[in-house]
Amino acid sequence: MRIIASIRTSVLVGAFVVEVVPLLSTYNNGGGIPPVVSDNSDIQTVLVNLTPHSINLIHGDETVNIEPSGAVARCKREQVQVGTVNGTPIFQVRMGEVENLPEVVEGTVYIVSRITAEGAQDRNDLLCTNDPVRDEEGNIIGCKSFSKV
C-alpha dihedral over 93, 97, 100, 106, to 10 degrees? Predict the structure, then answer.
C-alpha cells in the first residue's frame, strides 16, 4: 500500500507538470520517490520506472530524473544454438513471458524496456522511452518523450 505525503514540489517540464511526491512508506521495494505527472487535466498519473536505469526526461534546458523503482520487469529469454560461424556460436532467441510486472493499478503507469512492453501488449499501462537525446560522443543521456507499443 502506498501512502503519499501531502508535501509536493512541482517542476514545469515542457507540456507536463512533474510533481515529486515524498512518500511516508517505501515504494516498490524501497525504490524511493515516484514522480507524479499531470497533463493539465484533473487526472494525475504516478510514473514507476521498472528498468534498472535512471531515466532523464529532457525538455529544452530542463531535465527531470526518474530513478529506478528497485523492481525490474523483464522478458524471459529462450535460446537454442543453431550453428556456429568461425567458431562463434549462433543462437535463435525467442522472448518468453514477462516477469516482475505489477498488476494494473489505476492512476499508475509503468516505464519498461521496449522488449518488455512488446511481451505484454495486452497491457495499456506501459510506456517506453522515446526520442533519445545524445551527448557529443553519441551516448544516450535522456529522452524527450515516451511511447506505447
Answer: 130
- Quote the DSSP letter at residue 61: T
| Banded pLDDT at 45 (limits 50, 70, 90) | confident
Model pTM above 0.90: no
Q: Looking at residues 78-102, what average pLDDT do you find? A: 94
Give yes or no for a contact between 50 and 110, defined as CB atoms under 8 angstroms apart.
Answer: yes
Identify the weakest region by mean pLDDT among 25-39, 73-87, 132-146.
Answer: 25-39
Say if CB 44 and CB 35 are below 8 A apart.
no
Distance CA 105, CA 119 (A): 19
Q: Where are the alpha helices (DSSP H) in the chain?
A: 114-119
Residues 54 and 72 sit within 8 Å (Cβ to Cβ): no
